[in-house]
């Protein structure tokens, strides 16, 4: 997996995900994410109890794996392993690869009905970088973002 794909996966996991635990998951996604006509159940074998289901607090594989499957992000992997927009309608990467610009889908909402807005993502990133939050993986996920290491330190 190339560095861009890894970054996009991590970005997908972190953006909306960090707030989903307190506000409920997003609703109103496009047709491919629509609820099936009949209820479905996802059963996942795990080797230990997760320490946390909040992505910012996951520090071991089981928690991270479950958290990634519980939360939606700006992008996701398609069935071929390619990054595609999810909560974002589209995204652009600057020619130098330093600026990522996301356009949010219209009509995406938290479970409580409140619209998901750009400031939700900003708040999630700031919380994840907050030194008071024991986010063990923050340097790995967000360390390449300009100014992130200054906040984490």
Which structural class should the secondary elements be placed in?
A: alpha+beta
Low-confidence stretches: 16-33
**Major sheet strand order:** 1-6
Q: Distance between the terminal alpha carbons, to the nearest Å?
A: 29 Å
**Total of helices:** 6
Total strand segments? 6
- Describe the global form: globular
Order of helices and strands: HHEHEEEEEHHH
Overall mean confidence score, pLDDT: 77
The main sheet comes to: 2 strands, antiparallel
The value of Rg in angstroms is 15 Å
Percentage of residues in DSSP E strands: 5-15%
- Percentage of residues assigned to helices: 25-40%
Describe the structure.
The strands form 3 sheets. Strands 1-6 form a two-stranded antiparallel ribbon. The protein has a two-stranded antiparallel ribbon with strand order 2-3. 33% of the residues lie in helices and 14% in strands. The protein has helices at 3-14, 17-23, 61-70, 118-129, 138-142, 148-152, and strands at residues 26-27, 75-77, 83-85, 88-93, 100-104, 109-110. By secondary structure, the chain is α+β, with helices and mostly antiparallel strands. Residues 16-33 have low confidence and may be disordered.
């Amino acid at each position: 997996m190339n560095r861009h794909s890894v970054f996009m996966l991590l970005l997908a996991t972190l953006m909306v995900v960090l707030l989903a635990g307190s506000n409920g998951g997003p609703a109103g996604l496009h047709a491919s994410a629509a609820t099936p006509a009949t209820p479905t159940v996802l059963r996942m074998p795990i080797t230990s109890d997760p320490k946390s289901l909040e992505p910012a607090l996951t520090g071991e594989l089981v928690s991270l794996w479950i958290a990634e499957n519980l939360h939606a992000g700006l992008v996701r992997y398609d069935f071929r392993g390619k990054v595609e927009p999810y909560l974002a309608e589209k995204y652009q990467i600057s020619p130098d690869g330093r600026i990522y610009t996301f356009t949010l889908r219209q009509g995406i909402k938290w479970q409580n009905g409140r619209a998901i807005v750009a400031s939700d993502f900003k708040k999630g990133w700031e919380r994840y970088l907050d030194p008071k939050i024991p986010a063990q993986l923050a340097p790995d996920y967000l360390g390449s973002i300009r100014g992130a290491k200054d906040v984490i330190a």
